Amino acid sequence: MRYTTHELLPSIIAKINEDPEDNGLKPFTVVSSSSSSPDEDKSNISINHMSNIKGLDLNIFRGRRTAILGDSTLFYPTQWLYPMMTHLNDEEENGIPKYDEMSLSEASEVVKKRAGILGVKELITDSTDNTLIQWAGVKGRSGAKRFETRISEMIETVAQLNPHVLVANMGLHWLHLHPLVPKDGIVIHRWVHYKTTWLREVYNLAMDMNETTLLLFKTTNFVCDSKRTGDWEKYSNLYLSMDNRTIETCYEENKQFVGTYDLTKSQVYDYCRFGQFTEIGVQYYNGLVYDFVREVHENQTDSRLTVGVFNDHDVESCESTNDAIHHREKMEIRLRLLSNTIESYLGCRNINPQLMVETTAPKLGV
Q1: Fewest CB within 10 A of the end CB: N or C in the chain?
Q2: Is the dihedral of CA 176, 179, 182, 186 positive or negative?
Q3: The sheet that has 165-169: what strands, in order across it?
Q4: Per residue in 129-184, pLDDT tens?
Q5: Confidence at 196, pLDDT banded by 50, 70, 90
Q6: SS3 label, residue 134
Q7: What is the three-state SS of 199-256?
């Protein structure tokens, strides 16, 4: 039996998706393979390993400061954690529910009832064991300039917190579905330079905080394009089909930004093609996340900070969303995967960092 490590995360996701109702929160065993090193007399030999995987383990957050940084795709998971981790008055003897012994539907019902009693919040504290979980970010719509100010404010909030674990995601606000989403040159700049203006900025933040030992970049949420209606459905379908007229119209209205914010013609055109607010745009973003993390592992020399990917995109589906974007249904599965991911990467401190990226990076879906 092996400890839950980062290379098992794709297998964990696959096992959850086999049967979300029964495997979503409970412990299970996964089988993974590795190959022996070849020598003069032997060919590669595949060796199977059995690994026991924990179910939903909220104790991974206990005794740590965890900052959750980004947009509403991380705001809602934080809110769900509040009723799950907070004790009710009548739990003095029995403690909080044992979610890892429940089916998904059973746990969801329990969480719903607890939320009705306790409410939902984006700040979780417990002075008895120094637990703190705080969301800092932006949700809802705002003008591009105000949005930039809010990004600076949330980064400063996290810097002051100096967390042990940082989970970050941002990106949906910089996608478009012309003409339904307003555009601005700074938005296009943010999309074009996503690695340097967001991923690198968050990485530098983590490096500057002396107590942060784990940085997880959350993948961008799965977009269920088939659930869109009205004009959203119309333009989503046009973009998914790479409709030339739609893309050209987008470019004509945004070419005014060429020469500003370091933007070129080809970059604005690429934004119109791949910066679309659809699953194509999501896959493009997630490919950049995996590329960035791989580059960090190849070049980073400071062993204090471990950097990884929290791939909740692959346990999301059209069944877990009501608005095509946010995945409030089956939230407990995402939190289970987060606990597995935190545990696995915390165990990576002595592993060659070049081996710490999942091998199942997403491919551009076009």
Answers
A1: N
A2: positive
A3: 123-126, 131-137, 65-70, 165-169, 214-218, 306-310
A4: 999 999 999 887 777 778 889 999 999 999 999 999 999 999 999 999 988 877 78
A5: very high
A6: strand
A7: HHHHHHHHHHCCCCCEEEEECCCCCCHHHCCHHHHHHHHHHHCCCHHHHHHHHHHHHH
Tokens 């939190």 appear where? 335
Q: What type of residue sits at position 315?
A: V
Return the domain boundaries, the chain. Answer: 63-355
> What tokens does 326 get?
């946010």
Global model pTM greater than 0.85? yes
Structure tokens at 250: 């987008």
For domain 63-355, the question of CATH label 3.40.50 is answered with: yes
Dihedral (CA of 364, 281, 203, 124) sign? negative
* Nearest residue to 99 (alpha-carbon basis) of 73, 126, 80: 80
Kindly state the helix (H) or strand (E) to which residue 284 belongs, with its residue range: helix 279-299
257 and 190 in contact (C-beta within 8 Å)? no
Q: What is the pLDDT of residues 299-344, one digit of tens each?
A: 887 778 999 999 999 999 999 999 999 999 999 999 999 999 999 9
For residue 267, give both structure tokens: 């970059």
* Cβ atoms of residues 262 and 196 within 8 Å: no
